[in-house]
Amino acid sequence: MLLKLATKSLLQRRVSVSLTVMMIAVSVFVLLSVETIRTQAKESFSKTVSGVDLIVGARTGQLNLLLYSVFYIGQASNNVSWQSYQQIAESPNVAWTIPISLGDSHRGYRVLGTTTDLFSFFHYGKKKTLEFSQGHAFNGLYDAVIGADIAKKLGYQIGTNIFLSHGVATRSFSNHKDKPFTISGILKPTGTPIDKTVYVGLQAISAIHVDWKNGVKLPGRHTEINNDMLRPQSITAFMVGLKSKLSTFSVQRQVNTFSQEALMAILPGATLVQLWQMLGNVEQVLLLISVLVLAGALLGMSNMLLVTIRERQHEMAVLRAVGASPWVILLLIQLEAMLLVSFGIVLAMFMLWGCIQVFRDTLISEYGFFISEQVFNNTIMIDILWILLASFLITMLPAFNAYRHSLHAKLH
Amino acid sequence: MYRYPKSTAAALNIDDWRVKPGEQVFIYGRSGTGKSTLLNLLAGILTTKEGSITILGQALSELSARQRDSFRARHIGMVFQQFNLVPHLSVMENIQLAAYFAGTNDELVQQRCQVLFEGLSLELNLINRRADTLSIGQQQRVAIARALINHPKLLIVDEPTSALDNEAKAGFITMLMSLVKKEQTTLIFVSHDETLMPFFSQQISMADLSVSGVKHVA
C-alpha cells in the first residue's frame, strides 16, 4: 500500500521526478564508470602478462617500452636488430625468448609477428598458457593464428583467407593484397588483448614487406621471395624467460650495457607497479570528483523532496487522519527517495552496460584495455549499496522534516 | 485542558463533557473558539496537558502516540471541510488507504463500499476515477464513505458542508444522518452554520463547553 502510495505520488510529479532520476542516473553512471575503469584496468593489465622475467626493447622510457610491447599503446622509438636479439637470446642465463614484431594490422586488429615459442612459453592470467580451440600454430609462411574474439566477430574459420594491412588504422589504404594469409589456428578466449590479435611468423612479416620501402609499396616491383629475404632484419621487442630468477638483475644489466646497440630491459611486474603509482593519484581524484557529483545529485533530490513536502501538507493530513503515524510519513518519503535512487541506478547500469558494449572493442584495440563483459562485479555491487546508504542518510533530512510537520500539524 | 506549545494561555479548557454512544452532537461556535483544537484532541493528534479524554472506554492519555494513531485508524472516522482525499489516488485507493491502516481485509472493504456508496447516492463507477476529477460534493461524500469504511464507533466531522451550496448541503446532511443512524455511529459534527442544528439530537455551543476566562498561566 505504501509502495503504491509512493509510486503514485512520484508519478504525480512526473517532470521534476524524471529530471531528478536523470540527475541521479548520470552521477551514478559517472561513479560506476570510474570504478569500472579503475578496477578492471588493474586486473586487465596484470592479467595480460605473467611469467615473463624481462622485456627487452630499444632504449626508451620504462613505461613506454611496457606499454608498446605488451599493451600496444604508443609506438616503439626504435627497433632491436636481429643480431642483438640473437646474441642476448643465446646468453647462458636465458631459458627462452619470444620476439615481437608490430606494425601491421588486419581490419583494425593488431598483427604480431613472432615465433611458435609464443605458444609454448607465453603465460597470461594465473600462469596459463595459450591453447587452441581449433587448428594449430603457424607452420607455413602465410599461416596465421587468430584470437577468439576475431574469430567470433568476423566469423573466421580454419582455412579462411585474410589480407594484412600496413599500419594500424581500421581502414588502411596500403594493403598487402598480393600476399594472402590462411588461418591455421584459433585460440581459446583469454580475456586479454590476445583475443584481439592476429599472430603470424616473423618470416611472414619480412615476406610481406619485400618490395616495400619506408611504409609504401614500390610500384611495379614484384620480387620472387627467397630464404635470404625472409631473415628478419629487426624486431620491435622481445620477452625473456630466465633459467633462474636470481639472474634477473645481471641479465638486465647485461642488456642495459649492451655495447653494439642502445637497448633496455625492464621487469614487467615492477614497471606495472610504477604505472599504478603514477595512476594512483589520478584515480583518487577521479573517484573524489565522481563522489562529489553523486553527493550533489543526492542533495538535489533531497531538496526536491523537501520542497514538495510543503505542497503536500493536505496529503499528509489525510494520511494522519486515517491513522498513519508520523513514522509512516517518514517512511513514505524514504520510500519515494529509494524508488528515485533505485530507478536512477538501474538507468545508470544500462548506460554503463551500453557504453561498454559500444566502446569495448575500441578500448581493447587502441589501449589494450580489456573490460570483461561481466560489468556488474562485486565492487560495483558494493558501490551500489553505498549509494543506497548515502541516499538513505541524505533523505533523512526531508523525511524527518515531514515527520516533524505531521507530528505537530493539526488536522482541519 | 490543552495549551499550544510556546503559548502560556490555555487554548481550550473543558471542565466535564460526556457524549452517550449513538448520539448525534452538533457543536457550534465562531472561529477561534477552539473547535478545531477539540477535534484534534478527540482524534488523539493532540494530547491534553491536564485532565483526560476517554473515548469508547479507552483513556487516550494512557496510549503511546503510535497506539493513538492505531486507535484512530480503527475506531474513529474523520471528515474535514475539504481536502479529504489524496488527489492523485483513485476513489477506491483512498478508501483502501483507510482500510490499510485499520487492518480491514479487502473483501470486507468491497462489501462495505457497496453499502456505503448506495447510502450516499454515489455511483459505483466513480470508484476508479481519480479523486481530483470528482466534484466537491462527490468528494465530500467519498470522504464520508472513507471515514465509515472501518465501521468506526465515532465519526468526527468538521464543517463538511462549507464548500457546498444550500441544496447540496441539505441533501448531504440528510444522507449523513440516515447513514450514521443505520450504522449506529456516534457523530460529532462541528460547524458555525446554525441552520443545520435541527438535524441533530444534541446541540452544544463551544462557549458553553469551554470554561470561559481560564486563560491564566498554568
Describe what this molecule looks like in 3D:
Chain A has 412 residues and is an alpha+beta fold. Chain A contains 13 helices and 17 strands. In chain A, helix 10 runs antiparallel to helix 12. Chain B has 218 residues and is of the alpha/beta class. Helix content of chain B is 37%, strand content 15%. In chain B, helix 2 crosses helix 3. The N terminus and C terminus of chain B are likely disordered. The interface between A and B is medium-sized, with 25 and 34 residues.
Structure characteristics:
heterodimer; A: 412 residues; alpha+beta; 11-stranded mixed beta sheet; two-stranded antiparallel sheet; elongated; B: 218 residues; two-stranded antiparallel ribbon; 7 helices; 9 strands; globular; disordered N terminus
Mean pLDDT across all amino acids of chain B: 82
Helix share of residues of chain B?
25-40%
Number of helices of chain A: 13
Mean pLDDT of chain A: 86
List the helices and strands and how they pair.
The complex is a heterodimer of chains A (412) and B (218).
Chain A: H1 2-12, H2 14-48, E1 54-58, H3 62-70, E2 80-81, H4 82-89, E3 94-106, E4 109-114, H5 117-121, E5 123-124, E6 128-129, E7 132-135, E8 143-146, H6 148-154, E9 161-162, E10 165-166, E11 181-187, E12 197-201, H7 202-208, E13 212-213, E14 216-217, H8 227-230, E15 234-235, E16 237-242, H9 248-256, E17 263-266, H10 268-311, H11 313-321, H12 326-367, H13 378-408
Parallel strand pairs in A: 4-12, 8-11
Antiparallel strand pairs in A: 1-16, 1-17, 2-15, 3-4, 3-10, 3-16, 5-6, 7-11, 8-12, 9-11, 13-14
Chain B: E1 2-3, E2 10-12, E3 24-28, H1 35-42, E4 54-55, E5 58-59, H2 65-75, E6 76-79, H3 91-102, H4 106-119, H5 136-148, E7 154-158, H6 166-183, E8 186-191, E9 202-205, H7 206-209
Parallel strand pairs in B: 3-8, 3-9, 6-7, 7-8
Antiparallel strand pairs in B: 1-2, 4-5
Helix pairs in contact in B: 2-3, 3-5
